[in-house]
Recover the amino acids of this structure.
């Protein structure tokens, strides 16, 4: 079955055949210049195997903003062969929470906190609990399409995409879901051991893994903490004096200063050994 949606350019067909012949036995590393067409080549090769063996394709990219690209190519494949293959561009709560958007909250940790504390009160989540698909999506969906679909039914986009995982042949997501505990939300629905893993731009994986295990305290976080303390100590003109902390460092409150403090734990070497890239 030819699933490649374009006319072949040099070496594309050969690479597709190589992947199909070896993917069940080998970890495959692919290096090719920009413009070679790696994404449609790999998708075309893996889809035939995945559909035949009833497996999924997990496509990991460096950032959430890059998750749409594999799904855009999947749309082209579906358009060519007219077969219902479903895939989604998967994003985290920070991008998908409508309540956080209304509250103008953009920090991942704060959105997660709001979801945890306000979920039972959230109208979008409550609506989702009673939602039934009028019909299953007939084509792959980008992140923005899932968001608009959820808005049209006034339901939670994040839990909608979680539900869509049950029907997806291809899921495009960020490295975070592969190298951190965030992956549990995917694995409980799509077991990784029953999937083909593609790590796009695998040379960036070590940096992504390193940043995941680093803690940051930003100036915005410090300001927000001070404001919360002020709320607790209404009437006190000087929060530092109230807590006998002396005078705050001037730089910590200057509006025109942008900096962040970072704490790096000892590196975990094995993190970079156990993840091999099919890209």
């Amino acid at each position: 079955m030819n699933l490649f949606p374009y006319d072949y350019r040099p070496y594309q067909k050969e690479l597709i055949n190589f992947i199909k012949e070896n993917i069940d036995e080998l970890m495959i590393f692919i290096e090719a210049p920009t413009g070679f067409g790696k994404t449609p080549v790999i998708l075309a090769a893996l889809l035939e195997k995945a559909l035949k063996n009833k497996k999924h394709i997990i496509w990991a990219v460096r950032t959430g903003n890059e998750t749409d690209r594999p799904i855009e190519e999947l749309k082209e494949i579906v358009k060519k062969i007219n077969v219902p293959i479903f895939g989604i561009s998967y994003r985290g709560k920070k991008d998908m929470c409508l309540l956080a958007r209304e509250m103008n909250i953009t920090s991942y940790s704060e959105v997660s906190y709001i979801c945890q504390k306000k979920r039972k009160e959230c109208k979008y989540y409550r609506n989702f609990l009673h939602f039934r698909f009028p019909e299953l999506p007939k084509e792959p969906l980008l992140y923005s399409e899932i968001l608009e679909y959820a808005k049209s039914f006034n339901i939670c986009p994040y839990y909608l995409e979680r539900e869509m995982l049950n029907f997806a042949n291809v899921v495009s997501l960020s490295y975070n879901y592969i190298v951190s505990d965030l992956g549990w939300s995917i694995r409980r629905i799509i077991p990784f051991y029953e999937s083909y893993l593609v790590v796009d731009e695998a040379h960036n994986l070590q940096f992504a893994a390193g940043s995941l295990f680093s803690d940051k305290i930003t100036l915005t976080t410090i300001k927000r903490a001070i404001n919360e303390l002020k709320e607790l100590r209404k009437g006190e003109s000087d929060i530092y004096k109230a807590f006998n902390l002396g005078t705050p460092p001037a730089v910590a409150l200057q509006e025109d200063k942008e900096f962040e403090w970072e704490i790096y734990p000892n590196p975990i070497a094995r993190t970079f050994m156990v993840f091999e890239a099919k890209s």
User: Anything to note?
Assistant: The longest helix spans residues 38-53.
